[in-house]
Amino acid sequence: MPTVGAVPALDCADPATLRAMLAQQAGEVASLRAAGLVQAALGDELREANGNLVLATLDARTLRDAAEGAQRRQNEFLAMLAHELRNPLAPISLANAMLLRLPEPSTELLNLHAIIHRQVLHLTRLLDDLLDAARISSGKISLLRSPMPLVDLLRRSVQTVQVRLQERHQQIQLDLPEELIVDGDPVRLAQVFSNLLVNASKYTGDHGLIRVAARAHEGCAVVTVSDNGAGMDALVLASVFDLFTQGPRALARAEGGLGVGLNVVRNIVELHGGTVTGSSDGLGSGSVFTVVLPLVADDGAVTVLPRASAVPSSRRILLVEDNLDANETLGRLLLGEGHLVTSAYDGVAGLALARARAFDVLICDIGLPGLDGYQLITQLRKTAGAHIPFAIAISGYGQVEDRTRAIAAGFGQYLVKPLDADALLALVASSAVTRFIAAARPH
């Protein structure tokens, strides 16, 4: 018997058998060749897929880098835009503040002052919201949190929009408890509720009604801002907190807007560990926005510090501002309060004056020719024997890093244009400046 697996001996005398075996081997070779072609094709496809994957990875990385670069350029552009727009707003705001200080202003003049004041505030709010949207998208917004009474903040927020409500004969009802303590940034939370109130007023007709209510619920403060205005349909509700989303245009265009206010609201609330939602029963049925913020677990007693009284003494002030109109209007404002003002229009001249004479207060723009404000205060502090005044930086840039850089350079305060005239005058006359001057005097 033949061994298992052995190749049978060929019968050379049998051509038919030989032809059959050759045909079988030829078929097997053809099958192997076909399988090899399939494997080669699969290998080619695999190599092509790997190449495409590498290219896709590189493209994704390129697109990500391009997107990050575009966002960075956008934020830089928005910061520059705010600076350029705030520069002309500053002298307009200051000049308007001086109108009220004219002797016996007429009714017409007071009306014109009110119009200018409202429009400056409107432009300032638009700039602030636009910049905050950019800062939030790039993760550059920060909070200065502390335990604070929420109800007091709500009442102040209502006061900021009171003029707007009176113009449209809108009523506002408050349902507020005695005390709710939250851990929050008072400036940012005031922005949240002011934005919600402005939004409610914008989409509510004349003689409309706006309600603000607050209560404690399960360890949280729940604040609702509701109105009986235009309302929202389901499509708008789904994206109401998205950037550049607007409500019904018939009302929105009456006052303008960029569609960023509610986006800023949502992001600030979420940074506080809270939530905000919007609801409406449909067009014409009004809207309700609900903000939920965590309450301070152990609030204890809230200490209210007495306000420092203004000191009426005259200050020797060095004003360094390259914008001629802003320099003149701010100088006149300070002179009108009894202060002695010396003006300079560039950083080099400002530094020379600060080194040569003793001033109580330095009010210095950051963007100056020759030497910028950072360089001026840095070089002044390095000057041996120089008298160092209380330094106030003023700038159109309002980002956190700008403020931090100014304080680190040696400024005591950082104010963003357009300046609040009353706040600036109160700062110049404050007891903090008086204490600084007293400490700087030679003993």
UniProtKB/TrEMBL annotation:
Q: Domain named Response regulatory: which ranges?
A: 316-432
- Per the record, what are the reactions this protein catalyses? ATP + protein L-histidine = ADP + protein N-phospho-L-histidine
Tagged with keyword Transferase: yes
CDD domains with a match to the protein in the record: HATPase, HisKA
Q: Which InterPro entries match?
A: CheY-like_superfamily (IPR011006), HATPase_C_sf (IPR036890), HATPase_dom (IPR003594), His_kinase_dom (IPR005467), HisK_dim/P_dom (IPR003661), HisK_dim/P_sf (IPR036097), Sig_transdc_His_kin-like_C (IPR004358), Sig_transdc_resp-reg_receiver (IPR001789)
Histidine kinase domain sequence ranges: 80-297
From the UniProt record, list the coiled-coil ranges.
Answer: none
Query: Mind telling me what this protein is named?
Result: histidine kinase
Organism for this UniProt entry: Massilia antarctica
